[in-house]
Amino acid sequence: MSRRPSRPRGAPLKYVYREFDGIPFPGQDALGLFDQLFELVMEYGQPALDAMDRLQIDPRQQELLDQLIRDGLLEKAGARWRLTPRAIRAMQRKALMEIFSRLRAGRREGHEAPSPGPAGERDDGTRPYQFGDPTADLDFQATLRNAIRRAGPGLPLKLREQDLELHCTESQASCSTAILLDMSGSMARYGRFYHAKKCAMAVHALITQRFPQDTVDLVGFYSGAAVIPEHRLPLIGPKPVSILDPRVRLRVPIDRVDEGPLHFTNLQMGLRLAGRLLRRRAGDHKQIFIITDGQPTAHLQGDFVHLMYPPDRETALATLHEALALSRHGVRLCTFALTEDYAGLDWVGFVDRMTRLTGGVAFYCAGGDLSECLMESYLSGRRVRTWLS
Fold first, then answer.
1. Domains of the chain, first to last
2. What angle do CA 105, 111, 124 make, to 5 degrees?
3. Lowest-confidence range among 31-35, 184-188, 333-337, 384-388?
4. How far apart are CA 145 and CA 153, in angstroms?
5. Which residues are CB-contacts of 253 (< 8 A; sequence separation ≥ 6)?
6. CA nearest 81: which of 112, 55, 105?
7. How confident is the model at residue 330 (pLDDT cuts 50, 70, 90)?
8. 96: which of 112, 123, 160, 205 fits an S-S bond (Cβ 3.0–4.6 Å)?
9. What whole-number distance in Å separates Cα of residue 336 and Cα of residue 291?
10. Other beta carbons less than 10 A from residue 52's beta carbon
């Protein structure tokens, strides 16, 4: 038999007994193995799972591995290991808890809009009634005081519209977010992609668990751009560098971009894809989070993708034009520039230009500090978004 504590508020502690379901609580060894698997997959992606078939596993570790299979965290599809949906959710929760454990104490969570309105928590103060306001928010004491002040204390007391006062409330607004994740070759350095991927998983978990009215889409951009399904996020990695020439000028057809060098940075194509996704979403506010470590080195022109290194002015202008078009449609752009490598930070000037042009926000941080910046930006986004009105 198993038992779990069940204690209604104000009631003494009680236990509810139920039939044991046969699944033991995972021991510390099993939990430790999952943590190791989580870190390996987050750092190395799909190759970490592929390598499991080639590892020499001793009998004790094999038992722990079998336990992960029995717990529904791992499964084998043909010749390949695969994370189950349950494992993906567990990894999201773990990433979320790790990030929140590092956030500064006292930060108020929420998605409040800057203006008072309906469908929110009550705030201090009252305001006059306006035609169409919900009567459920009437402040009866303030309303009666207004009526007595106007007509005196005699009975019967007749209320008029100008007597009515309502409680102020914090209006609640839904938000549609697209996370643009840089998958270019340079993101493999300094653990940048590991931190960026973990943050994206945590934001996804936060939105689905706490803000179900919000939406989040994930887009990876490299020489091209593509939507990242939720179940694929832990398994992806930055694109390998395949050209080491000091000067590159290539042109690849859009429909064959994945057949060419993949390690360039096509932020313009990522913004365009994110814009299409956000247009399908019904959020009151829309925003794009850009996580990147360098200046764009690829852009669209006609039916071709132009790959250009060193970064070219033509690429920068095409990307800025795409960002400006999104901001004019009410999309807020927030850029997280990863700056561990101080050898060539000239590219931050591009981020400054894009931020000023779009009225957005920019954070300059190391990959290890990304979680605090990104999470607090999302949680406080309702207050920052006053420029949309």
1. 116-172 (no CATH), 175-388 (3.40.50.410)
2. 85
3. 384-388
4. 10
5. 303, 304, 305
6. 55
7. very high
8. 205
9. 5
10. 15
